[in-house]
Automatic annotation (TrEMBL):
Keyword Transferase: yes
One Pfam family from the record: Glycos_transf_2
Name of the protein: Glycosyltransferase
Origin superkingdom: Bacteria
GO molecular function: glycosyltransferase activity
Length: 320
């Protein structure tokens, strides 16, 4: 990934470039030091996941920068992408986090699964994006050039105020990987901060560079962390209401995945629920959002699952 994508980042970046090495053992450090000696390296002792890796890496930078741009290692960027993203947050003082448009490398001209043109949550905590509804990707024809407030910004390319990141405790390390950025964005929204998208900047994402969709662990982390996120951010009564419906919908997902992806993925959903029920008391629970609905009113969808499979709404533009 470094060989393929780091040259683009070095060529097109204006601000300081730092690589956090998450306990790699594949020769990445040797490659960086021999080919990119000017790139600063923060070396971690072990792989503590996306959440812990960024938390530990950025803790070493605290006080040195006003903004952080978090970028996955399987992404290519466009000229001055970082300068434009930082300027965008400077121009929007109420905004804590922003993402660019994220396009797919594998499907040229289409949005990427991990974020599209900005993310939202339905009433049961399922994420969807402008440009990506569940498994359907849209072609980028300029239909999402409007800069709007989001429920969440993609961690694949995540521009955040340093004061907000550290002030809200960064990513929850219990998540390890997947949905930790949605959880942080939810906490920021509950405190009155805005989450946004800068559609004037485009980056390109390979996807699955670290953990492929075919890996059952990805299924496990997505389902477990979604439950973690709901428990952390909803009031007790609201969580119980949502959790009951989630069990019904996730059981349907388990049956569907068993036939489409295999029994290992279905078992991963089962394990996600078991792990949540054993560990939810360890999660920090304040402040919680007393609202019944967890998504913004700007693009509220009751159930993206039912809308997609029953009403055949496969594009963001299908929703009012």
């Amino acid at each position: 990934m470094l060989r393929r994508f780091l040259p683009s980042v070095v060529e097109h970046s204006v601000h300081d470039l730092i690589v956090v090495d998450n306990g790699s053992d594949d020769g990445s450090l040797t490659f960086l030091r021999s080919h990119y000696p000017a790139v600063r390296i923060i070396q971690l002792a072990s792989n503590v996941g996306y959440s812990g890796g960024y938390n530990e890496g950025l803790a070493q930078l605290q006080g040195s920068y006003e903004f952080y741009l978090l970028l996955n290692s399987d992404m290519s960027v466009t000229p001055a992408w970082d300068l434009k993203m930082v300027d965008f947050l400077v121009e929007h003082p109420k905004m804590a986090v922003a993402q660019p448009k994220i396009r797919s490398i594998n499907q040229e001209g289409y949005f990427d699964y991990a974020g599209g043109a900005g993310g939202f949550l339905d009433s049961f905590g399922y994420p969807y994006c402008r440009g990506r509804i569940l498994h359907t990707l849209e072609e980028d024809r300029g239909q999402y050039q409007e800069s709007i407030n989001l429920d969440w910004a993609s961690g694949a390319c995540f521009c955040v105020r340093a004061s907000c990141f550290h002030g809200f405790g960064g990513f929850d390390p219990m998540f390890f990987a997947h949905m930790e950025e949605i959880d942080l964005c939810w906490r920021l929204r509950s405190a009155g901060w805005e989450i946004g998208v800068n559609p004037e900047v485009a980056v390109f994402h390979l996807g699955g560079g670290t953990l492929r969709k075919s890996n059952p662990r990805k299924t496990y982390l997505n389902f477990r962390n979604s439950l973690f996120m709901l428990y952390k951010n909803l009031s007790c009564i609201a969580f119980i209401r949502v959790f009951v419906m989630r069990m019904v919908l996730d059981f349907g997902a388990l049956i569907h995945i068993a036939f489409s992806n295999g029994l290992q993925h279905a078992w991963a959903i089962h394990k996600a629920y078991v792990h949540f029920l054993k560990n939810y008391r360890k999660l920090p629970t304040s402040p919680r959002n007393p609202a019944k609905f967890i998504s913004s009113k700007q693009a509220h969808v009751k159930s993206i699952i039912l809308a997609y499979y029953l009403q055949r709404k496969t594009r963001f533009g299908d929703f009012d």
